[in-house]
Structures are given as structure tokens and as C-alpha cells.
């Protein structure tokens, strides 16, 4: 036993260590009872090692589950220091499970069993490590406020807005460039540049690309001249986006650099909300803002969840990034970020050793002791990939790039980083190996049921005492940390669907870390009809294995009574896996997308002048796009089809807009009409005004974020699983029909036809 004096000395040492290593942001730690907190941490680890009878462990595990369930509903627990105590109670449940799993369940019965058992064990330890690093990252999220600029505009830092493009259509780049020119910032201190890598000198001289490159060059040069912005091309397309940006750095001179992907349309206030931090703190190297997308990604679109559930990106930009910001570890995400030029020049420009040049650059800046700031307000409006295939291209680039950083410059060993920054960057890299563990979790129970691989040695009472409390505690803690931005089972959906396709690209990095090349994510595609993605085939194989394991479990139950405990555990596990797999099939069924511009949520008031009736009516704007607007108003008569109307409205800054439109469709709902109106954008001035009206107000995106921030509705989640499972079965049969039944039917017809034809020829010969 350790004496109380020794424990007090231990607590004091931990307390002093916390004061030295915690970042400046954690000011409140100075007021906390350090010794008490350190003792709590010590006792948690000490108690987890105590031996108790199984019945007592059951009481301890479920008793703590009950406590955290109750605490999670108390508002004060959401803030430190009670927040930390709540988190540690959940961590204690996981720690109990890890110790039990390591000490009591790893039993050697043969080489193949051992390989399967160790694979599952390490997959669990990986998942728990990621869970623990996620807890560490989000223990105390920080929300940096907007830092106002000085009243004297002469003190504003100058800004170059860089818009890199490669093969994107000119209309997409035009919209972003117009919005950039509309940014609210003194004209003499704002410069906008289109960086066109699709019309480089090398491409214009290449016979295979010459004509398209010259056409692109003249079109973009003419566009830049019309808008009054700069146009920069380079000799060769070296080092992809990083090379393009670095080339532009040599031809521009402002204090700050705003990087925008060519589909990321900025709001007017993006610089007013970010540039102040560079005046406030000379050590700030960059300010990152969220990537906000107006359209669902393919998984959200195909499964029809975009309007109901938080988006996949919300987890990162609304929960994880504020956590990283507290540890001074928020990182550059490639766009929607403002960077200080002189610190970039110290690095030699944007880093380009990996294909995630953004994170690599941020890591290098943090290693030099510079600061980052994350402003959790959406101030750009971008596009998600339209098809599942394009989504995998994007995710593969992220996975490969982060794996490159993990292999080439492992954050745990980068000089200059604080220990907490090393953990945060390590977590960001290590996370992308999730595909391996997801597949292992899918196939592990089936391996026992189908192949009799003994991968998990335990009994039902032990699972109830250790495993289930750990799982329930983790679910409660995950909901506590991320519940507003990620609903139950949705991480399993998003990661499980992608897992099979990310494993090979991640492994390829280990064999040749410098081989991956930057691939531009296709944006703005349209789909003329519904279709089935070819990526469904590997997932079909995995689902077939899970289906085959179900009857195998029934047989094993009766054939091997001694294994009934583990049979029951793996059967339940397999059923849950199958449910998730079937529900996930909907992600592969591509829904058609024929709109030129995505319709976005909007809520504001407008006055609409109807010339035919010679009157102005009050209306509500319900949705908006670059093509038009949806409005609703009370009126006894519907406006005429193609009738020209005039909308008058104001944005959140008070600016008044007067926009011409025409009625394309109308629908009566109760005592009001809902009309879809198309904007009339006949000249450049009207088009620029429309761009500002649609994209210029960041408050609209912030309101959209908030209206989607709601706790998970258990009934909705269960209904979603049920509907998705039924849809998955339907898609499963469609896939089998196309792959197996149709070819088999053709072979049968050919076989029958040959028999009939042969019999006919034989009969003819006999008659002859």
C-alpha cells in the first residue's frame, strides 16, 4: 500500500507538471484544486487494478454507467472542472475493460487462432487509443472570438486572395473571384489573383493539351480583365497545388494570404472577422475557418439524411477543431484560411513533401513556435463531391497524405512541438488507419462462426460486467462530447462505408511514402439518372460473409454446446454488423443530380413587386441558389408563369438588394403560394449583385448550422436504420440480379436453346 503522504507528493508533482505543460489557453487550471484533481486521476488508475469478484465488477461497472448517465443530463457538468470528472468516470470504464481484456482473455490455442485473436485485440486497442486521443483533444474546446480590426484602416494588414484552379469550369472560378472582389476590405489593401494551373506554358506547348490550354488561357485572362483581378500562370505544373501557391507567393507582396479553393465562395466579412488576430498577436501564423458545404456529400445524398442529421464534416469543423484550437493545434485545411506571409517564407513557402500540404505546413509552423487560431463561423460556401467515386478520390488523398506525414515526419518526434501538440497531430494522422479496424470488427465474429477461429475468449457474464459497461460508457461519452454534431451509429456508417476502399491506399504509403500524387477532387458533376456505384462490389462480398455467418451460428449452437457463450456473443455481434452493412448499402445507390446550382436553405423576409397586379406583397425567402430563389406569400391569385417580379430584401449587414427575377413555377399550399423564381442576370453588374446576395452573407450559413444542431432523436435513428436496412436489401437484390442472375439466365437460355436446336436438327435428319 502507498501511504497518504506519498500520494500527496505524487499529486503535487502531477500538479506542477500540469502547470508547466498545459497551454496558455487553459487559464482556469490556475484556480483548480490541483492536488484534488491529481488524486482523483491517481485513484482511478489504482482502482482499475483492484481485484474484485465478477459479481462485484458487475455492480461497479453498471453503477458507474448509471452515475455518468445521470451526470450527463446536468448542465454544469458540461463545463470544467466537473466536465473532467465526468470524462474520467467514462475513461475508468474503458480502463477496466482494457486491463481485463489484456490479462484474462488472451489465450493461446494455436497459430491461426493466435493471429486472429491478436488482430482483433490490436484493432480494439487502436480504437481505444483513437477514442482516448479524441477525449484528450476535446477535453476543453476553445471558441476563439472574432477580433475586431483597428478603427484606423491604415493599420490594416494588406491581403492577397489566391484562388488556385486546375481543371474546374470557368463559371465556378468566376463566382468565387467575383465574391472575393466583393470582400469588405479597403480597396488599396485587397488584391485578388486567379492561379491557373490548367493553362501553364507546358500545357500550352504540349500537342495533346495545347488547344484546350490556349482556350482556357484566353478565357481566364479575359475574365480576370473584366473583373479587375490578377491572373497568374506558371511554366510547369510542379508539386501540384503547393507548387501553384508557392509560385504565386513569388509574384505577390501583401502581408497576409487568403487561400480559397476555386469552389469556396467567400462571404463579405471573412477578412473583417479574421485579420484582426494578426494585428492583435504577432505570433499568430494563420487563422482557419470552417469549410461549409451547400450540398450533401454522396453518402448523405444517397441516404437522404442531409436535411435531418448533422453533416459528416460537422464532426471535424464544429467539435474536433475547437478542441484542437485549445491545444494550439488547429491546422490549415487548404482553403478558407488566412496566413501570414513572412512565416510562410521562413518555411520556403507551402510545404509539399506530402499530398496534404496544408496540414504539413501547419505542423511546420507550430514546430517553430507560432500560433494558430480557429474561428468557428462558416465564411465560405463550397461544394462536396457529387458521386461516391469522387468522394473516395477525396478521402483517399486525405488518408494517403496523413499517412505520409505519419511515416515521413511522425509528429511524436518533431522537434519544437509541445507534447500536447504532438498528441493532437499524431491523432489526426493515426485516425486514418480506421479502415483496417473497421474491417476486422466486421469479419472477426464471422471468422469464429464460419472458420472456428477462436479470436475472443470470454463468457456472457464477463461481457456483461466489463465489455458492455465500456461500450455504453463510450457511447455516453461520445454523445456528451460530440452529440450535437454526430448522431449514434453515424460514425460507424461513414467510416464503415469507406473502410474497404481506404485500406489499400493507406498501406501503399508504407511501401513507397513518396509515391502518392495530388489528385484534384472532381466538383460540380451532374447525374442524369439513378445508378449503382461500382464500389458496391467489395461491400457485397463483405455482406455475403456476414449473411453466411448467421445460419452457421445456429448450427454451432447445437453442435458445440461448450462454445455457447462465445457463439451467442459473436452471433449478436454479427447481427449488428449485418444490420449496419445492409443499412449502408444505400450509400452506393447514386441519386440523380441535374441541377446546375444547388438549392440552399434560407430564411429571411422580402418584398415582392408583382407588375401584373401592380402591388407589392410581403414574402418569406425559403431557399436560394445562384439560379433563383424560392419565396412564399399570401395572395388570392397566383402570379403568372414567367411573370417578371422584383425582389427587395436586406442581408444581415443591413445592405439592401433589388433583384429582378421571373416566376418559373408556383404551388398553392393552404392560404399561401410558394413560387420558384429565376434570377435575371443579363449583365456583369447584375450577376455580381446576385453573387453577393446569394453568397455574401455569412450569417445565413451560421443560421443553417444552428438549425441542424439538435440532439439525436432515438425514434428517428431507429426508423432510419429500419428504412436503410430495407433499402439495403433491395439494393442487394438488384446487385445480385445484375451480377449473377442475369448472366446465369443468359447461360440457361443459351443451354436450352442449344438442346432444342440440337433436338430439332436431329428430328430433321431423322425425317430425311
Relevant terms:
768 residues; alpha+beta; 7-stranded mixed sheet; 6-stranded antiparallel β-barrel; 17 strands; 53% helix; disordered N terminus; disordered C terminus
SSE layout and pairing:
Elements: H1 4-21, H2 34-48, H3 54-71, H4 82-104, H5 111-137, E1 159-165, H6 170-181, E2 190-196, H7 201-205, H8 210-227, E3 230-232, H9 240-249, E4 256-259, E5 265-266, H10 276-280, E6 284-288, H11 298-302, H12 314-326, E7 337-340, H13 341-347, H14 357-367, E8 371-374, E9 380-381, H15 388-408, H16 419-430, H17 434-451, H18 460-482, H19 490-511, E10 531-532, H20 536-559, H21 564-584, E11 589-590, E12 600-610, E13 615-624, E14 628-633, E15 644-650, E16 656-669, E17 672-679, H22 684-695, H23 698-707, H24 714-767
Describe this structure in words.
The chain is of the alpha+beta class and 768 residues long. Helix content is 53%, strand content 13%. The protein has 24 helices and 17 strands. It has a 7-stranded mixed sheet with strand order 3-2-1-4-7-6-8, with helices on both faces. Helix 3 runs antiparallel to helix 4 and helix 4 packs antiparallel against helix 5 (111-137).
